[in-house]
Amino acid sequence: MQEASSQRDLAELLAERHTVHLVDRRGHGASGALPHPGPPHTVREADDLRAVLEATGATSVFGVSSGAIIAARAALVGAPIDALALFEPPLVIDGSADLGALSAFDAAIERDDLPTAMGVAMKIAQMGPPWMFGLPLPVLAAASRRMLRSPVVAERARALVADFGVVRENADRVDDVAGVTARTLVLSGSATRPYLKRAATAVAERIPGAQHVVLPGEWHSVTQNRGERGRPTASRRCCSTSSRAEPRSTRAG
Fold first, then answer.
1. 182 and 154 in contact (C-beta within 8 Å)?
2. Where do the domains of the chain lie, and which CATH numbers do they carry?
3. What does the DSSP 8-state code read for residue 15?
4. How distant, in Å, are the alpha carbons of 23, 37, 68, 196 from that of 210?
């Protein structure tokens, strides 16, 4: 449930040493509604990223969540990427998340039932504290209905179509990242969901020379703005020091 502006604080911190282009993906924020709502989401979005890189001359990419999957995919198809930072790519491995529930999400989107779609999404992605995504779907849908009164929340809920499209297309394909040759930093939080921990570890193990940094006590919101329960300084600090570190798994204080 993010868009480019969700990472503005982190972008401003990184801009102290880099030129930063904060990009809204298809269906997110300023990019507007999905022009082609169907698959293949990953191919289109990797092409989009490549176009941005070629237009700007940028060669380093920080991908967050499903954006991390897209960044890795773009690197695999020859986008001009020298360095990658991948934060908690939601690569599902051997049923580590319940993608079978996506049929209920798809059906809710089809009938324009955003509260139910958002409730299903909470369960699949395990959003919020465990007691929350463990609630019955009708309760989550009722809570979602109140949150969806915000136009921003409603817009982000619709963008989940693109996010889940990328997740579905890349399920059980973590081995593909072994072909990434860019210098890679994988970031994850120690308090994040088990399926995200597993994915981050698997990605770091497969990309040659990748460094994996675990942020103690952090979870999936750490890269977001301070007002959205994020701690962007923690993410920035890891990016600033990773180029001097040997490939390994470590915890950042």
1. no
2. 4-95+171-251 (3.40.50.1820), 99-168 (no CATH)
3. T
4. 24, 33, 14, 17
Query: Rounded to two decimals, what is the model's pTM?
Result: 0.91
Cis ω for the linkage preceding 90 (within 30 of 0): no
Q: How far is CA 205 from CA 54, 71, 95, in A?
A: 29, 17, 19
**Conformational region of residue 111, where left means phi above 0, alpha means psi within -120 to 50, and beta covers everything else:** alpha
HSE on the CB side for 138, CA within 13 Å? Answer: 0
Question: What DSSP line would sit under 196-227, residue for residue?
Answer: HHHHHHHHHHHSTT-EEEEETT--TTTTS-GG
| pLDDT tens per residue across span 108-130 | 999 999 999 999 999 999 987 77
Query: Could you tell me if 87 and 223 are in contact, meaning their C-beta atoms sit under 8 angstroms apart?
Result: yes
Structure tokens at 178: 């072994």
Angle, vertex CA 78, rays to CA 58 and CA 15, nearest 5 = 20
Q: What is the DSSP string of 83-128?
A: EEEEE------TTSS-GGGHHHHHHHHHTT-HHHHHHHHHHHHT-S
Q: Which residues of the chain fall below pLDDT 50? A: 241, 243-253
